[in-house]
């Protein structure tokens, strides 16, 4: 699978631009702020139906526009497919594949898989468990539609339960019958989701360790430890007993939305005890393991997006990463870099076919 062409209208800094890509390495070069990352985000939209960097779709509309349009043409299993994403201000987002409009955007997830390695990936280590839950949810959801649908249903029931808790807090009246009605689906769906997460981690860990060994040239043991209370035998009792606290805080304090993923190296938390180099190696290994996992489960080679990684990694890790990506396991790759000469020295002559594009003045121009 690869992206043949991309057209943008009023998307972020672009008013109108069209560009054609090759099926292997595509390099976007230009000064910081020129719009290189915005191209990768447009590709992310076409794959996942949403931005990799903004929570609100309206933030992706050009300041001079009232809408944005992203069109991409993919080659998938020797068949061309057109993917369309558009949004008008104060309107519902439209998403189509070959003129078929989805009723639910979740139907599209996993059809055109991508993996993004970006500078803000260090949030996976530094930030809260919510960031790690989102990361692993995104992996599982690309190949397991049942998991995705269960997660959507769970979040719907959780939102309703939290609204009830707020109402009870404000009124001072308990409604045990309604609480029990919301507890039941949270328990059933939560246990289903937790079991999937648990089995996923077991299968994912060998991929993570193998890639960490390749990136770091070390034999340290890395792991992801998954903690959940949902699979406890007495979880239903815990949830019921916690109702009073939930009313006070106006939120549900137990459930899979509170699950923890802990990254460890030699059985110590990497967030606290890992060096900067070990943390960077783990982050790259996580993304490469994500790539392998999605590829094996979907039978499709994801598009790999590398955003500004040359400024974030030392020469040794760049060399290791490029060596890995240069193997036959990878297909189409997009790379952004602020320095054209560095991109040419690292990649030209080593990865063919390859195209280099100059991004400047809200335009994208292919270079010789």
TrEMBL record:
Main location: cytoplasm
Subcellular location: Cytoplasm
A GO biological process held by the record: double-strand break repair
RecF/RecN/SMC N-terminal domain residues: 2-344
Molecular function terms from GO: ATP binding; single-stranded DNA binding
Sites where the protein binds ATP: 30-37
SUPFAM superfamilies registered for this protein in UniProt: P-loop containing nucleoside triphosphate hydrolases
GO CC annotation: cytoplasm
Top-level division of the source organism's lineage: Bacteria
Pfam families on file: SMC_N
Assigned keywords, A-Z: ATP-binding, Cytoplasm, DNA damage, DNA repair, DNA replication, DNA-binding, Nucleotide-binding, SOS response
Keyword Kinase carried by entry: no
General function of this protein: The RecF protein is involved in DNA metabolism; it is required for DNA replication and normal SOS inducibility. RecF binds preferentially to single-stranded, linear DNA. It also seems to bind ATP.
Family the UniProt entry places it in: Belongs to the RecF family.
PANTHER family: DNA REPLICATION AND REPAIR PROTEIN RECF
Protein name (Swiss-Prot/TrEMBL): DNA replication and repair protein RecF
Lineage: Bacteria, Pseudomonadati, Bacteroidota, Cytophagia, Cytophagales
Gene that produces this protein: recF
